[in-house]
Amino acid sequence: METSKQHVVTDIKNIKDSQMEDKQWQSLLQQGNNFFHEQQWSQAEFFYSEAYNLLAVSYSNHLMCTQTLMAWICACHNLSALYETTDHLELSLKFLTVPHEYLLNIANSETAEEDAKVTAFDGLRLTLSPILMFAKKYPICDSCLENFTSLKGLLKQHAPALH
To answer: Rounded to the nearest 5°, which phi and psi values hold at 80?
Structure first.
C-alpha cells in the first residue's frame, strides 16, 4: 500500500510540475510575441529563447508529450520569424531546420517507439511547409532544397485521402 501511495504522490507531483512548466512556457511565448509586435527584437529574442530552452528540457523529461513537442516547434518557428525579420537569415533557417531534422531522425529511427515515430511523422508536416516557404523567398543550396522537396512528396503520399 505504501508503494501505491508513493506512486500517486509522485504522479501528482509530475502533473503539478508539468502544469507549472506549461504556464511558464506559455507566458514566455506570450511575452515574446508582445515584444515582437512592439518591434523590441532583443526582448522578443530573450523570451523566445527562454521558452525554447524550457520546452527542450521539459520535452526531454516527457518524451511522449505531443503538446510539449508542438510548443517547442512553435518556439523554434517564433525564433525563425524573429531572425528573418531582423535579417539574420542563417539563424532563421536554422530554427526552421532544427525541429525538422529532429523529427526526421525520430521518424527514421530503428529504436524509437512506434507512437513516437507517428508523432514525429505528423510533426514533419508542420515543419516542412515553413522551410519550403522560406526557400521560395531566400536562396537555399540545391542539395538541401532537394532533400526538403523530396520529403514533401513523401509526406503527401502518406497523407490520408478522403474519397
So the answer is: -60, -45
